[in-house]
């Protein structure tokens, strides 16, 4: 099993979720995140005053999938979240040794 984690722009969440559901993903976890990458934030002007935004608002999406689905899920995430601009995000995979469904006690891929 793999844990696919993506950090994406908040405005792309609905598109990403729809694409993942169309692909067949049955569950995911979404949480708010903030951070920066190479762009190191940006400068904005509000009511005439200029200020620096160091931490940008992002969304973290996590999906537990079977090994054979992992690369396809990454492709769906990248294709849907891409705007072509800096700050589109990152996607990575982590090996998962075990998963257990709390309600039933099922283990492994049956728990997905």
UniProtKB/TrEMBL annotation:
UniProt keywords, alphabetically: Nucleotide-binding, Phosphoprotein, Transcription, Transcription regulation
Pfam families xref list: P-II (PF00543)
List of residues that carry O-UMP-tyrosine: 51
GO molecular function ontology, one term from the record: enzyme regulator activity
SMART domains: P-II (SM00938)
GO cellular component: cytosol
PROSITE patterns in the record: PII_GLNB_CTER, PII_GLNB_DOM, PII_GLNB_UMP
An individual GO BP term: regulation of nitrogen utilization
Descriptive protein name: Nitrogen regulatory protein P-II
Taxonomic path: Bacteria, Bacillati, Actinomycetota, Actinomycetes, Micrococcales
């Amino acid at each position: 099993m793999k844990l696919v984690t993506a950090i994406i722009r908040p405005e792309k969440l609905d598109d990403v979720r729809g694409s993942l559901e169309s692909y067949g993903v049955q569950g995911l976890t979404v949480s708010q995140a903030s951070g920066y990458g190479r762009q190191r934030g940006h400068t904005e002007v509000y009511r005439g005053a200029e200020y620096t935004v160091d931490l940008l608002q992002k969304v973290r999406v996590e999906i537990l999938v079977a090994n054979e689905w992992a690369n396809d899920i990454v492709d769906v995430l990248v294709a849907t979240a891409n705007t072509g601009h800096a700050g589109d995000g990152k996607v990575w995979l982590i090996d998962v040794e075990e998963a257990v469904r709390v309600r039933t006690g099922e283990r492994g891929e049956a728990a997905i």
